[in-house]
Amino acid sequence: MRKLTYGMNLTLDGYIAAPGDDIGWSEPSDELFQWWLEQDRGLELMLYGRKLWETMSSYWPTGDEQPGATPGEVEFARNWRDTPKVVFSSTLDKVDWNSRLVTGDAVAEITRLRAEDGGPMGIAGATLAGAAVRAGLVDEYQIVTHPVMVGAGTSFFTTLDNWVNLNLVETRTFPDGVIMARYETRR
Length: 187
Fold this sequence. Notes:
This is Dihydrofolate reductase family protein. One of its GO terms (biological process) is riboflavin biosynthetic process. Residues 3-179 form the Bacterial bifunctional deaminase-reductase C-terminal domain. Pfam families: RibD_C. This protein is α/β, with parallel strands linked by helices. 27% of the residues lie in helices and 29% in strands. The chain has five helices and ten strands. Strands 5-4-3-6-1-7-10-9 form an eight-stranded mixed β-sheet, sandwiched between helices.
């Protein structure tokens, strides 16, 4: 069975984006960017919801060709292109960049993928991840909290039908007061 990880940058008040999809507060330090790169390198498959897919695919396919791209950004762009991706959307017609589109039942497809043999998967996008959390499919949470509150926006956390009990397995402090906490789901 594959492991499924949900991890994102979020504000102290729990948002992954401020109103208007503003993520300007989440500019990572070089150290944090490198940590995210290492996390992504460990994934065999990435699962995206439509909104985050559109954000990522609008920049990272050519991120290594951008003027002033850092060595970490070059590596991230290459890894992003090389990692197979599944995009869940009922409105998109096609996806590119080593990706396939799923338009049907996301929970059923994630359940199927998770039951396969293979390496770890990551999930990103609040709506998609929320469905996986409610279905009990997320094995690990990587919560990277930035010292800012935005008051509203897109929440990292979803409305739950049942409690999710977790075990803290790691913490780390990054520059600028950013704190990473990694939790595993207690099964």
